Amino acid sequence: MYIHNRFENKTQFIQKLKELDYVLLFCILILGIVSVATMYSTDGGEVKFYTQSHLIKFIIFSSLMLVMAFFNIRLWFSLSYFAYFVLVLMLIWTINFGITVSGSQRWMNLYFINIQPSELMKIAIILCLAKYFHRMRLENVNSFYSVIISLIIIFIPMSLVIIQPDLGTSILISISGIIVLWFVGLNHKYFFYSFLISIVSFPFIISFLKPYQKLRILTFLDPDRDPLGAGYQIIQSKIAVGSGGILGKGFLKGTQSYLEFLPEKHTDFIFTLFSEEFGFVGSLFLLLLYAIIIYRIILIGSISRSYFAKIFCYSFGSAIFVYITINMFMVLGMLPIVGSPLPIMSYGGSSMLATMIGFGIVLSAKIHNQQSIA
Amino acid sequence: MNNFSDNITKLNSINRRMFIIAAAKVIIFGGIISRMFFLQVKQNDKYLTLSDKNRIREWKLAPVRGDFVDFFGNTIAGNFEAYELHVIPEEIEDFRYTIYRIKDLLNLSDDYFKKIVKKKNEIKPWETLVVSNNLSWEEFSKINNHLYDLNGVKPVISISREYPYKELFTHVIGYVSRANEDDISSNKTIKEKFVPELKIGKIGLEKTFEEKLIGTNSIERYEVNAYGRRINQLAFQKGDKGETIQLTIDTKIQEFTNQLLFEKAGSICVMDIYTGAIIAMNSSPSFDPNLFVFGINNEDWQLIRNNPMKPLVNKTLSGNYSPGSTIKPIVALSALENGIITPDFTVQCKGHKNPLELYGQTYHCWKKEGHGFVNLREGMKQSCDTYFYEVARRLGVDRLSETAKKFGLGKKVFKELFNNEKNGLVPNTEWKKNALGQSWVLGETIITGIGQGFIQTTPIQLCLMTAQIANGGYKIYPKLVANDNTQYEDKFIPLYKKSKNIKIIQDSMFSSTNEIRGTSYRSRIDDPKYQFAGKTGTAQVKRITAEERELDLKTSEIPYEQRDHALYVAFGPYKNPRYALSIVIEHGGSGGSVAAPLANKLFKMIVDRHEIRKSFETKKYMNI
Q1: Which range of residues forms the domain containing residue A111?
Q2: End-to-end alpha-carbon separation of chain A, Å?
Q3: Which of A348, B16, B303, B519 reaches 20 to 30 Å from B585, CA-CA?
Q4: Interface predicted TM-score (ipTM)
């Protein structure tokens, strides 16, 4: 019996290994290599802190992703609410005892690692809402009760992050939540009306923004109004991208980056550096890589039997898309500057951890796509 | 069953919505791609330029200034290697230690030391701090010997202005000094070529020829980072040295004039009467222009400024003097030209007991005993004032001023060349009416006849006047720059009506120097090779009272400021004239006893060196 079990486990493992989505894995691996190479360039062509740290994080977190893939999707389903509540508690903790970096209290000290609960919340909120709507009948989705509950689920982490303050992440968290609401079938008119309301109330919202945020909006509208101050980042990042040309300046030859004209080049503006060195062709390649990843995630969602997995994959794929879009719009001067990292590419452990956890669950959904959840 | 159908509707709903989102994604990715295409492909040139503007910065270096050379090509204003001490603060481990070490080595004053420390705090740590820009060789080698514990200290050799003849040419070429804000805003060339510590001409020819002399900047092109730190050098573009300007001055003669003027206040200038070339032009006392190059210290400045002999005034060009008797050749010439007198016109000079009286005013001759009956030649020879009172009275000031102006008095000789040259003043009735609002009085005509009163001339004007009498009465244009070939339409036009009149004046001037009883007879040279003709002048600084006339004081008994100016104009060699000169000694006494003897010494040298200059010039042409 014991032997039989072991044998069964072993065949089951091999079976699962065969079921892995290797296209997705391959793309993630390539993206990881590209991101480490780009970090190497930000370090000025030497293996220094950022390269090392990014590489180590990528190895650890992609292993974590693989491990997660072999756990049954039901486990992730059952942990959804728990993860959400733990993260809400962590956010509350962060607000009171977090580490303050450049005026914002985002990090939580876990003794061996500093982590940003708000980044993880981007995934947890999808999990939580997916579970909430998993069993719900379609006609109940638009009931007053469920709409209110789901809005509260979104509102709690959003407000906790906004008071850190971290406008960018809180927007991304709420967008993740709204994406789920869209997929579970919330009436179109809600989206339409709230879109209308947000546009109408935009001037009103502006009055609540902090001075530096107002400045960012003004700067977005006219970067040249203060080229050495508020407009500096966006002007320099456009110069970096634009000067890259079709084929780029070549690996490790981005003058904007190694002469330190690019601000935040490790994190939010990593794409400008990549684009300067590899040009239009390189940027297209990177976009293609992301497109394939998103496509595979959605494909996995479409073959998943369980509604939970489907909601998660669709929402996660779309969320990744939104993160990429907002980041690129920002660095290409099509949106005001809000803090939003480029998944995997940007330096930042929490962001990478969250993305890898998402990939892990997606891979688990692929392996267990025939699994239904009661 | 119910559950199953619900599931199907749910799946339909989610897949439909996924499709909508997927379509939106494709459109948005398309948007990102087109934006990237716009930035990277269409506007690539624009951003590439901006990126280069970011990373490439140019540094201008001080241009190398052109030289001044004398007639023979000797450098009279050149460049020398200046020893500078630079410090780059960020390359020094312990700034305080190093800077105190430098202070000890160079014996810097506390004030200067504080200034340096203050300057250090104003600049960025990687910028160069100039601790000293003019070290002596001893200091420079001292620093070099101690370099082992002066990390980050850089001894630098740079180029700076030097005037090897010190005070000799100050009043001709002027001097350079650090450009100030006014210089930069008023001169476009300077603005264009400005670098910190740039030296520019402040006065004299250094200022006039600034544009030619300044040269072009060398340019260093560096790649810099966002903080302005130089990363590596991309290019070095060497600038050109400024033009070299050759003057007509003979340094040996200039040196000799300096000796003649030693401890005197005055001016000597020597001119070629045909070409107008200035052979020597000196104003005394002078000062060392090297003092100004790195900024003059207060002590030296006060010394120069408070000197009663006024070294800062260029007496040759901006000294307005009454010409005294040196005007008499012009008065006589004007009277002859206008047919007022003939050479035989005679006047009786009765001496101080019987002065000329006009409307209650008396006009004395300088000679107490009087000259008796004098004609033109005797009047010039002995410089009889009474004779010229009468000539001037008959001539009238308007006709006199016309001739005087024709011969170059009353207007700038060098036009725009010097900004400190004065016009002088040749008065006439119209001038007085316009300037003073009064009518001309006959008495003023009379004293104008002996070069007193309103009339004022500069030494260079007197020299030009003499030269134009000496060359037979033809107009010339004086020049200081050797290759100045400006064409003048009226050059060499006759200034006379009858050339015989010029001859008469020349002859009378000859008699004044070379015949017994002539005012400068004692300064004559009998050797025809050097023989010259001249006219003395003694310009009163103040009106002589009757008591003073009685006392007949010696020059040394009068206070310095009240002594007469001694003047002398001459040309020679008399048989074949080539050079004219004017000498003015401020408060020197009488022209005959003070100024004329200088001409005696000078003329020998001028004529001797004429051969040397001639052979040098032919050699120059033969080389071509």
Answers
A1: 23-367
A2: 29
A3: B303
A4: 0.93
